[in-house]
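just leaving the lab so this will be short. below you get a single protein, a line of residues and a line of whole numbers that encode the local backbone shape. id like you to explain what the token line says about the fold, in plain words if possible. thanks a lot i owe you, the record is right below:

…
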Amino acid sequence: MNTPDTLHYTKDHEWISIEDGIATVGITDFAQSELGDIVYVEVETLDEQIGITEVFGTVEAVKTVSDLFMPLSGTIIEFNESLEDEPEMVNEDPYGKGWMIKIKLDNPAEASELLEAAAYKELIGA
């Protein structure tokens, strides 16, 4: 199970990379493996300001649909549109081409509540 040490994580199995007040968000390798083959990613909250833990979209796999939760409050400024044609990128490259959204953060201090890689690995039993 791939869990890069350079990223932050949530208990909802999302990864976060923060640079210059912008957070890039996707689901973890663990999450994509649990979901199975991803067939659709829906984010209809582009340009909306959304609070921490609120739903910002859904990911649909062959057998299930799961909500995606905001790891940090802010405005969604970008959606990875390549996922519309290639949702399998979330399975193939969850930490690279499979990223989902970019958020302009309202309160960067919220990031202190995110899990470091070691704590996330402990959460998933890795």
Q: What stands out?
A: The beta strands are 8-9, 14-19, 22-27, 38-42, 49-50, 55-61, 65-69, 74-79, 101-105.
